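Following up on my earlier message about 6-O-phosphono-beta-D-glucopyranose. Here are the inputs again, as you asked, copied directly from the submission form:
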Amino acid sequence: MPTAEELHVTPVAAPVTPLPERIPEPCIVIIFGASGDLTKRKLLPALYHLDQAGLLPEKISVVGVARRPLQDSFAGDMKEGTIAGGGVEESDPKLAPFIDKIQYHAMNFDDAAGYNALNKLLTDIDKKSGTCGNRLFYLATAPEYFSDIINSLGQHGMAKPVPCADGSNKNPWVRTIIEKPFGHDLASAKALNDEVNKVFDEDQIFRIDHYLGKETVQNILVFRFANGIFENVWNRNYIDHVEITAAESIGIEGRGPFYETAGALRDVVQNHVMELLSFVAMEPPISFEAAAVRAEKVKVWKAITPIHPADTVRGQYGPGTVDGKPVVGYRQEDRVHPRSHTETYAALRLEIENWRWAGVPFFIRAGKRLAKRVTEISIHFKQPPLLLFKDHEGKGAESIKSNLISMRIQPDEGITLRFGAKVPGPGMNISPVNMDFSYAEAFGKSSANGYERLLLDAMLGDGTLFAHRDGVEATWALMTPILEAWAKDPIKDFPNYAAGTWGPTTADALLESENRKWRKL
Ligand code: BG6
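Thanks, got it. Here's what our run produced:
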């Protein structure tokens, strides 16, 4: 067998540089729950990357808000996080001025006096730093605090823009970014949406899904809609089935109490995987305006037929080996119930009943402690009539693999197109070969973590890459019946896969009944 030919891709022109109008107006970013991991590991490094790239306004302040009295250590901690999480050298001359822009405010999230003091602090910063009343409130707390914070911001007059005293900004803005999980099921998501919408208008709300910040995820739209050759075959006439895999080799990373109430379906499928699916399946929007993109995504989710519990598989990892090291099972993890029924793996088969996709099954799998970390979308094309390439005994055609486009979302970001090629020699033997595009080879390695783009867009007021109320409710409407069916019928044989494997073998049956197989990743 010949080795696969690799036709590497190189950029043929310099990337487009950001236009000056993409730099946001002066503002204050206020992070609630700033003592948590997210701020240190992701948000601060992302803000720093934006600063380094010259994409932040010069007048910007960051205020961390949390309950603990961390005034003395916060800036130092954030510096450490930015160095560790952002691939930054301590000697970087831009680091100290960036850290100087960070302040800390300790308060309980239900404490009226705390909000008054915070409001005063923000007004003082406006005066000193010229941030002009523009505020971005980032809710990075545990979800049980969302209501308190949102209602208090409303009660203290902080949810609506107030022009700054010197009249320098006629159109100040106030926006809020809300982290996932956005609800626990359809009813709680609706209740939370109602609560948030009482205080903030929908165009002030930026529900974040960090997957949409990933370059490879945004590139799905570029791949489909900026190239003339793929979209024509992107439908039921040519596509046999689609697989979406979001596999992680890590376990629950000390998040026992959170994960026990979440599970794989809520944690990853309802949001990240459904976002991937909508990008793969949506119709071309009439523009890249937020409303146009969101409308097309919601149409996809609403066209998914109810997912029958028989088309779902749950799993939970037991002890096993990951990266050559023994690891405990889910039930042995810290603060996890020893007979927990929480799923750490979920697989589904679903169909989108519309003109583009009717009859094309989509197979989804997501899980923790799987054999490796890989998120990939595989588009499997139908076989052409293969009679030509059979030998006189009718053999040979079965070794011909169908065309495949595999979009590697992470970690080895890129896209591969598989096709058949003639093996040199006197016969007509066919071998699958790949055309491969690697992000790192074409554009160099990036240290961006996905939050850069989303923070920047929120500061610019561009909601295209954020979830809208309708979308959140549409995806919960799909997942809630599955969650209810699972709750009524707890699995008896958990754990049903060993850590470090590809999940429960029952997931293979989802595809095997139709003569298909999960792609080996
Ligand atoms: C988070 C989930 O939203 O996404 C985590 O809560 C999961 O459980 C993470 O590990 C995966 O994100 P990424 O970017 O590492 O694929």
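One observation from looking it over: The first strand starts at residue 27 and ends at 32. Hope that helps, and feel free to reply on this thread.
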